[in-house]
Structure formats: structure tokens, C-alpha cells
Amino acid sequence: MKKIIYIYGAPASGKTTFAKRFASAADARAVDLDACIEETAGRDIPSIFAEEGEETFRELESSVLRRVSDEASRRAGTTVVSLGGGALLRGANRDFAESAGDVICLDTPAEKELARRLASAGAAARPLGNKAKERAEHYASFPRRIAAFFDLPGSLVAVGRSIAGTFLEGGKVVADANVAAVWRGLVPAPVAVVPSGEEHKTPHTVAFLWSAFAAAGISRRDTVSAVGGGVTGDLAGFAAATWMRGIDWMNFPTTLLSMVDASTGGKTGCDLPEGKNLAGAFHSPRLVAIDADFLSTLDAGTLAQGRAEMIKHEIIGGLDAVTGAACLEPAGIAANLKVKIDIVREDPFEKTGRRALLNCGHTVAHAIEKITRYGVSHGEAVAAGCVEEARLAEREGLASKGWADSLAERFAAENLPVSLPEGVAFDDLVPLMAGDKKRDGSAVSFALPCAWGDVRLVKFDLSGGRCRIVMEG
């Protein structure tokens, strides 16, 4: 991680909040430049503006910026400095900050939200008022950006662009083999490289990671970073959860599928011959850094797999469809991910049943993966699984006629499969679904998609190779 990280953006964009939360997640020191200015001047910033004007304030700001940065460069560890909304307007200040560390700019909130925050703070606290529009071009000129961030139990989730390198520098990395080859400059010396593909998500690979941790001398004070898709995150997170009875980890998802699904929520684990994800633990990453730059190297088919999970979130949340390039931008990813974030906040450890809604389409999907020996990718299985479960909802009278066909059209528009693999019938999947980890005796809970914004938890008895509804809850 960089020695000094500056957090910048428009007034009321959340710089101080993010800097404090990020410093906590990264075991770094947080410094608020405005607070340092007030301490140096012996009075608050509105008083400096009122009594001596903006120019005097800017001179003091420049001086304190250099002093704080010099102190940070001499300290051990990382320092996260939140800057005032105009701290880098001076070219000399910007040049200095960008040479001393990395500057990450938070995107300005929507106008309505920005006005609310400014009003909440009061006019006296913001002597220059709302300068977001006036300075929009200035803020947009910073390449490292965060579009949104979320607080989860145990995790900070940041969605942005060009941020991974800042947070990864010098870290102990577990990388996916494909990612390690394509992004060689980002992960020059990983402690372990795991092969790509669900078929490698096994106890054998977890044991390989434990051996790599031992060889690297990783202790309980260390933090491991996972760089790869959902398989890499699940494996590295599970290895971290069980290494020396648990060490911290960070997650850097590199596929759209992992960004909107597996990266958040704290589920880690591996597959067993008896079923998917049967061995695992809840172990939340301290930081989830979702960097849209990783998507630039992915082909259309790989991106489509991520769109399957995004459409699943649209079903659960009743969201308007976001298509085309917009869904691959940080703002589009963040808006879609918020559906999962809100559910995980309510039910982080699957105690209330609320989190089970995220399994929409997955009971059938996991069975498809198993019966094809993972010849069907997870995203493709989710698309087909959602449609097949919608058909089940229709058969049980829980969804209106034609619902499954309309949902199939939505997935098909993203070039995703909407039917079971050739030669596979629903009845063939029943014995496999009976072994699902969500089973309760002979009953298995489905999160059935019944309409946009209407996903219902329904138990089915799958004993004897049949699928009979038990109860709707």
C-alpha cells in the first residue's frame, strides 16, 4: 500500500468519512488536513476566511499540507490524508501531492444529495458553499476515483477506477493465474498463484495456499490480498480464515461476476465432491476494492456472466434495467451491488432468512454446475437457473403466466442461456438439489423469482426424486 494516500473531492463528498473508515480497514493512520489547519491557526476555518480571507487560508493550507506529508513520509506504515475541497486547486499543491503519494478523488454526489449534506452541515461550516459545478472539470481530471463506498459488518466496500494499484502496493497477494499473467505489473511477486476455474476450488488448493503462507512467513499480524475472480476470493478468504485461526484479508475482484456477487458478504470456502461450497466460513475482507479497470481485459462472454448476477439483483430489487456500457461503469456497478449490500447489512450471517433472497436461481444453478461437472459457467448456470425457477413458480401458481418467458427474454438479450443444458431435464437435477447446503431434512429452500421485485422463499420436499411444495415463507 502507498506510504501516503490523499482523499480528495468536492465539499460534502464524504472525504473525511471515507478516509477514517479506510484507514481503519487498512490498519493505517488517518489525518484530516482541515483539522490540522485549525490546530495550527488556533481557530476554525470559517473564522480564518472571515477575518483574513481565502488567500491567507490557502497559504496556510499549502504549508500544512507539506508539513503533514513530511511527517507521514517519516512514519512507519500508511497515512491516509483527507483534504479540503479546494486543497489541490493550486497547481503546486497538486504536483506536490501526486509526487508524495497517490490522490484518490471521490465522485461528487447527485445534486439533491449534495444539497442535503451541505444544508445539514450549515452555512458556517462551508464558507465557500457549493463549488461542485464550478470545479467539476478539476475534480474529473484525477484518474484515481471512487464512485461509491459502502460500510458492511467487518468490511469497507469501495467501487471506483484505477484504485487497485494504490491499495495493493507491497501487499501479500494471492492471484488468479490469468490475472497474474495479464496484470503482471500490478502483482509482480504474489505469494501464491491459483489456477483459474471452479474445478480448482477444492480443499487441495486451500492446502496449497496454507503451504504458501507458511513459506512466505505470513503471521497473524499480516494481511493477505486476493486478486482474481470469485474462485480466488473464496479460496484466499477461506485460507485466511483458517490460517493461524484467522488473519485479515482484502479482496480485489477482477471479473464483473465477482464484483457484483462473491466479493461482498464475507462468504468464503471451497467445493467438495458432495456439493458446492459445503466447506467454508464467514470471514469478511477488511476492504473490498472494486476497480472497473480490470473489466477492460475481459471478453464479451465473461462480462455476460457478470450480467447474469446483475439481472438477478434487478429481479430481487425490482430495479430498472441498466444495459450497455453504463452497467460496466463504477456508478452502474455500485447501484446494482447496493441490492446485495442492503440485504447483507440486514442479515450478515443468514440468521433471519432475508439473505436467502440472494440465492434466487442458485438452487437450480448449483445443480446444473454439478451435473455438467462445471462445464457450464456459474453465470450461465444462474441465468438458466433463474428462468427454470421462474417456471417452477408458474407451475405452483406463485407467478403469473408468461413471467418465465419474459424473464428469459431479459437474459437472452445478454446472450445468456435460458434453458437447461442439452440432455438435462429438471427431474435429473432433483437428487442434486436435495444435497444443497440450504436443505432442512428432506426440504430445500428455493428463493423463487415470481415477478420483478418479488422473490419468495419457498420450501420444497425433494425426497424420492420428486419436487413438492412444503410451505411458502
Q: How do you describe this structure in short?
A:
This protein is α/β, with parallel strands linked by helices and 473 residues long.
Note the topology:
Layout: E1 4-9, H1 15-25, E2 29-32, H2 33-41, H3 45-74, E3 79-82, H4 91-100, E4 102-106, H5 111-121, H6 136-140, E5 145-152, E6 155-161, H7 164-168, E7 172-176, H8 177-182, E8 192-194, H9 203-216, E9 223-228, H10 230-242, E10 248-253, H11 256-260, E11 267-272, E12 275-282, E13 287-291, H12 300-317, H13 330-346, H14 362-371, H15 378-395, H16 403-412, H17 426-433, E14 439-440, E15 443-451, E16 454-461, E17 468-472
Parallel strand pairs: 1-3, 1-4, 2-3, 4-5, 6-13, 7-8, 7-9, 9-10, 10-13
Antiparallel strand pairs: 5-6, 11-12, 14-15, 15-16, 16-17
Helix pairs in contact: 2-3, 3-4, 9-10, 12-13, 12-15, 14-15, 14-17, 15-16
Structure, described:
With 473 residues, the chain is α/β, with parallel strands linked by helices. The protein has three domains: 4-142, Rossmann fold (3-Layer(aba) Sandwich), CATH 3.40.50; 165-298, Rossmann fold; 354-472, Dehydroquinate synthase-like, alpha domain (Up-down Bundle). Helix content is 42%, strand content 21%. The protein has 17 helices and 17 strands. The protein has helices at 15-25, 33-41, 45-74, 91-100, 111-121, 136-140, 164-168, 177-182, 203-216, 230-242, 256-260, 300-317, 330-346, 362-371, 378-395, 403-412, 426-433; strands at 4-9, 29-32, 79-82, 102-106, 145-152, 155-161, 172-176, 192-194, 223-228, 248-253, 267-272, 275-282, 287-291, 439-440, 443-451, 454-461, 468-472. The chain has an eleven-stranded mixed β-sheet, with helices on both faces. Helix 9 (203-216) crosses helix 10 (230-242), helix 14 (362-371) crosses helix 15 and helix 14 crosses helix 17. The model has no long low-confidence stretch (mean pLDDT 93).
